[in-house]
Design brief:
single chain, OB fold (Dihydrolipoamide Acetyltransferase, E2P), 5 domains, 28 strands, five-stranded mixed barrel, mainly beta
C-alpha cells in the first residue's frame, strides 16, 4: 500500500478509536464535504481529516515531521518546513492590538507543483531583510512555520518568532511563473491564486469608494483581451496608479499574479487585492498624442472631460485636471504631452502641456467617426446619431450591495437598426432630457451585452448628448 494511504488509514482508525460513534463511511463522507467546501486542489484527504478531527475536539498524531507539500497542509500543524515559489506579496501593514500596541503583518501567496497557499508574516518577520527583494517565481524555503485555519476554512501558513523564510538556490521541479500563467480564454469560475495574462483593451481607470466599515477604499479597473479575442473585466482592490507605469499602450500585455475568477453582473470577472502583482510588458515612455476633440464636458469642480479621436480612429478619454485645454474647442485638433496614458485613458495635470494645432485632415471629424447601429459590437466604444423613438424610461435599480441607483433608458434608431441607450446614476439625467422624435448625436458610448444576447449602448462619464436643430 502507498505510504500516504497507509498513513490516512491509520489516522482514520485513530479518529474512530477516539470517537466510536463515527464509522469509516461517515468520516469519508465528511472528508469529501470538507474538500468540496474548501475547493478542489487545495486540500488532501489527510489534511481534510485533520480539520474534521479538530471539529470534534480531537488532536490526531502528527505523522508528518518531514518536509511536505502545500496540498498536505492542515490546521494545527506545527514546525513544518517546505520549499515553494513566490506568487504574490502585499506591503507590510501596521495594526493595533487590543492594548493599543502596534504590530505588523504582511501576506504572501506561494505555490508548488500541486497547490497554492497563503502565508502570513507577523511582527518583525513582516520586514525580514531582503523580503522586499523577493520576486514572483523566486524559490524559497519556509522553516518551522505553523498552520492555522483562515476565515474560509483553508489552511494558512504563519511565520512567527520561531519561524523563518530563506531563499533557495537549488533547482526545483516546481514550475516557473511562465509555465503556470493562464490566458484570459482559459479561465473558469472559482479559480483562485492564479496567474493570468491578456492584452489591454480600452480604459484603465481608478475607483474611489467608502467600504461597509465607512473607510475609504480604492481600486483599479481595466479590461483584458485573450488570445481568442474574448474580453474580461478586471478589478484590483486596494490598487491605484502607483502600481502601474505612467504609460501603458493600447495593446500592451499585462500579467496579473495572485488573482481569482468570479461571476459578475456581466459574466466572469478577475478580482485581485493589494497583494496582486501587476507586470506590464511593452511599456514605454509617455509620448505626445494628437487628437481631434469630439466633445468637452465641464464638471462641477471645473475639470474638463474630453473625448478625442486620433488618425487611427481610436477614441481617447482625456481627463484635464489642470484646465490646460481651455484654449481648445470641440472640433479642434489638439496636441498634448500627458502625464499618464493607460490604454485609451489620458491624464493631463500641471506637468502636462497642451497646444492647439492646425487642422489635420487625416484625423476624422465627428461626422466621419460615427457608427451605424448595425455596426455596433460588444465591448467597443462608439459615437452615433439617431432618432428617439420612445419617451425615456426611468427607474431605480437595487444593486447587490443594497444601493439604489438611477437608470434611464431610451430607444433609438437610424436607417440600419434600433438599439437601447442606457444611462446610470448621473448619466441618467442626460437621457431624461431626450424627447420622442428628436434627432440626437451621442458621443462616447460603450457597447455591452444585454439580456437575451441583445447589444445595448451605455453612457460613460465622457458621454455627451447633442440635439440637432
Amino acid at each position: 500500500m502507498d505510504s500516504k494511504l497507509s498513513e490516512l488509514e491509520d489516522l482514520i482508525q485513530e479518529l474512530i478509536e477516539r470517537k466510536p460513534e463515527l464509522s469509516k463511511e461517515d468520516i469519508q463522507e465528511q472528508i469529501n464535504l470538507k474538500k468540496e467546501k474548501i475547493g478542489a486542489g487545495y486540500l488532501t484527504d489527510q489534511g481534510a481529516l485533520f480539520l474534521i478531527a479538530s471539529d470534534y475536539g480531537v488532536s490526531l498524531s502528527d505523522t508528518q515531521k518531514m518536509e511536505l507539500g502545500l496540498k498536505d497542509l492542515y490546521a494545527g500543524a506545527k514546525e513544518i518546513s517546505l520549499e515553494t515559489r513566490v506568487l504574490s506579496m502585499s506591503p507590510a501593514k501596521q495594526f493595533s492590538k487590543k492594548d493599543g500596541s502596534p504590530f505588523y503583518l504582511r501576506t504572501m501567496t506561494v505555490y508548488d507543483s500541486n497547490s497554492t497557499a497563503s502565508v502570513k508574516l507577523w511582527d518583525e518577520k513582516a520586514n525580514l531583510p531582503g523580503i522586499e527583494d523577493l520576486k514572483p517565481g523566486d524559490l524559497i524555503k519556509i522553516i518551522k512555520a505553523y498552520v492555522k485555519s483562515d476565515l474560509d476554512g483553508s489552511p494558512t501558513i504563519n511565520i512567527g518568532s520561531g519561524s523563518n523564510i530563506e531563499t533557495a538556490e537549488s533547482s526545483s521541479e516546481i514550475p516557473s511563473i511562465e509555465t503556470i500563467t493562464k490566458d484570459i480564454s482559459e479561465l473558469q469560475e472559482g479559480q483562485r491564486n492564479i496567474v493570468v495574462s491578456g492584452m489591454v483593451d480600452g480604459t484603465i481607470s481608478k475607483m474611489e469608494f467608502t467600504n461597509s466599515r465607512g473607510q475609504p477604499g480604492k481600486a483599479l479597473r481595466m479590461r483584458l483581451k485573450g488570445r481568442d479575442n474574448s474580453v474580461m473585466r478586471v478589478v484590483l482592490w486596494g490598487k491605484d496608479e502607483s502600481s502601474i507605469p505612467n504609460m501603458i499602450s493600447q495593446n500592451a500585455k499585462i500579467r496579473l499574479l495572485g488573482v481569482r475568477v468570479k461571476s459578475g453582473n456581466q459574466g466572469l470577472e478577475i478580482h485581485g487585492n493589494d497583494a496582486t502583482i501587476i507586470n506590464v510588458e511593452g511599456g514605454k515612455e509617455v509620448e505626445p498624442i494628437v487628437v481631434r476633440i469630439l466633445s468637452i464636458i465641464q464638471t462641477e469642480n471645473g475639470k474638463s472631460m474630453i473625448l478625442g479621436v486620433d488618425n487611427d480612429r481610436k477614441l481617447f478619454n482625456i481627463n484635464d485636471l489642470s484646465k490646460s485645454t481651455s484654449v481648445c474647442m470641440e472640433g479642434d485638433v489638439m496636441e498634448c504631452m500627458p502625464s499618464k496614458v493607460y490604454g485609451n485613458t489620458v491624464i493631463l495635470d500641471d506637468n502636462s502641456w497642451v497646444r492647439k494645432s492646425d487642422n489635420d485632415e487625416s484625423i476624422p471629424t465627428l461626422s466621419k467617426i460615427r457608427t451605424k447601429i448595425n455596426g455596433v459590437k460588444v465591448d467597443q466604444s462608439y459615437c452615433i446619431e439617431s432618432i428617439v423613438l420612445k419617451v425615456p424610461e426611468r427607474r431605480e435599480v437595487q444593486t447587490k450591495s443594497g444601493e439604489s441607483v438611477a437608470l434611464s433608458e431610451v430607444f433609438v434608431e437610424d436607417d440600419t437598426g434600433q438599439i437601447w441607450v442606457k444611462g446610470w446614476r448621473n448619466q441618467a439625467r442626460l437621457i431624461d432630457k431626450c424627447k420622442s422624435g428628436e434627432i440626437i448625436s451621442i458621443t462616447g458610448l460603450d457597447a455591452k451585452a444585454g439580456l437575451e444576447g441583445r447589444i445595448e449602448l451605455v453612457l460613460t462619464p465622457f458621454s455627451k448628448i447633442t440635439k440637432r436643430n
